[in-house]
Give the backbone structure.
Amino acid sequence: MMGGLYYKPRSFLHTTTAITHVVIFQYKKNTSIAQKQTVSKAFLALSQNCLAPYDKPSFDSPGKPYIQSIIAGSNDSLEPPAKGYEHTYVVNFASPDHRDYYVGLDPNFADPAHSAFKELVGSLVEKVVVTDFTNGLWDDKGPEE
């Protein structure tokens, strides 16, 4: 048992396993407060603007929002260093397929609302940290991996 969760091997991951997607922004020095607020509002709006495609069977409700939830806020950690990272967003998806559509690495399988958001934010951020995980899933990776 690790951190109160049982170790689950990678083979546990199924297409119906929930995925948590974490995004942390470090803005460019010249990004204004108003621009940061615009980014935050636009990111949170993705929960309603990202709609399930009609042609993918892994989505139960075509044309309806498919993001389960988004929570977000400014860094207020007392543990240094934040290294200039300011805003964190935590997005929950019902499955890896939903996350994959949202992320849009395959241009033929990409959410247009999220693609438009990436265009908006692209010129305002210096760095972005992204990590995804499945609750309770721990990979055994060695130094060579």
The chain has one domain: 15-129. The chain has three helices and four strands. Confidence is low (pLDDT under 50) at residues 1-11. The beta strands are 19-27, 69-74, 87-93, 125-133.
